[in-house]
Amino acid sequence: MKSMKLGVLIILFLGSITLNAQKKAYQIYNANGHKITYKKMLKKLAKADIVFFGEDHNNPIAHWLELELTIDLFKKRQLILGAEMFETDNQQGLSDYISGVIDAKQLKDTIRLWKNYKTDYKPLVEFAKKNQIEFIATNVPRRYASLVYHKGFKGLDSLSENEKQWFPKIPIKYDASLPGYVKMLNMMEGHSGDNLPKSQALKDATMANSIANNYEVGKLFFHLNGSYHSNDYEGILWYLKQQLPQVKIVTICLTEQKSILKVAADNKNKANFIILVPDTMTKTN
């Protein structure tokens, strides 16, 4: 009997070693850096009005988790999807594809698709199409962000009224003291003066405006964007809170670290949930 018990203990011990030796592709933490399960995160996300998934654009784990969360949240709530990767002047083409008016080839010919669309965003669009989920193109057309980068907000004044429909009414609200914009300005000192964070602000303002205009009470709006657009509850959130101050917002930040066993101090409190991925993870483009 003793030998049998000893054998069981040895098996359990060796099993524990094997389990701990397995390499993880990601680990979820709360804002304070405490580990949390996918199931618990999903439960909290399902209770929100708007969820922001801040991704690294070329991280395969981010795109896989975005799809998995979409599938799982759809089982719990009525969804509206939205993404930085689609621009407001392409909304008609995206909606036509979701509704079946045009096919995949026409979609490709009609709207501007990111180069990693096929691997990273197409699965989400196809899920939306299959389940007839509204998919909102939230981002400002890049030509207007480029215009602000080169000429500042005043560059928008010369546009026609037809062109101005693709972003919020001007003048665009802008707080240059927001830490995210200050950090961006300091990192890119000497490049286009202070216009880089302004072009970023135009994107943030447009995405917030798109979300606010398409949000429906009772539905969960699940939005995908680069993490820098929602980190530290700034960016898009700063604008959105001015339009929809009462909604419950939950944020996710996926970021890479050398080790995912502990959240680095500068990654804590970036979002409600921090998803760490090893910095050796392969890229999608």
Strand content bin:
15-25%
Low-confidence runs: none
Give the proportion of residues in helices.
40-55%
Q: pLDDT average, as an integer?
A: 93
Please count the helical segments: 10
H and E order: HEHEHEHHHEHHHEHEE
Class by alpha and beta content = alpha/beta
Shape type: globular
Largest sheet, strands/sense/barrel:
7 strands, mixed
Radius of gyration: 21 Å
The name of the CATH topology of the domain at 28-139 and 203-278 is Rossmann fold
CATH class of the domain at 28-139 and 203-278: Alpha Beta
Which features does this protein show?
7 strands, 42% helix, single chain, 16% strand, alpha/beta
Structure, explained:
- The protein is α/β, with parallel strands linked by helices and 285 residues long.
- The chain has a domain at 28-139 and 203-278: Rossmann fold (3-Layer(aba) Sandwich), CATH 3.40.50.
- The chain is built from ten helices and seven strands.
- It has helices at 2-21, 38-45, 60-74, 91-99, 104-110, 117-131, 142-151, 179-187, 195-214, 236-243, and strands spanning 27-30, 50-55, 79-87, 135-139, 220-226, 249-257, 273-278.
- It has a seven-stranded mixed β-sheet with strand order 1-7-6-2-5-3-4.
- Helix 3 (60-74) packs parallel to helix 6, helix 8 runs antiparallel to helix 9 (195-214) and helix 9 (195-214) crosses helix 10 (236-243).
- The chain is globular.
- The model has no long low-confidence stretch (mean pLDDT 93).
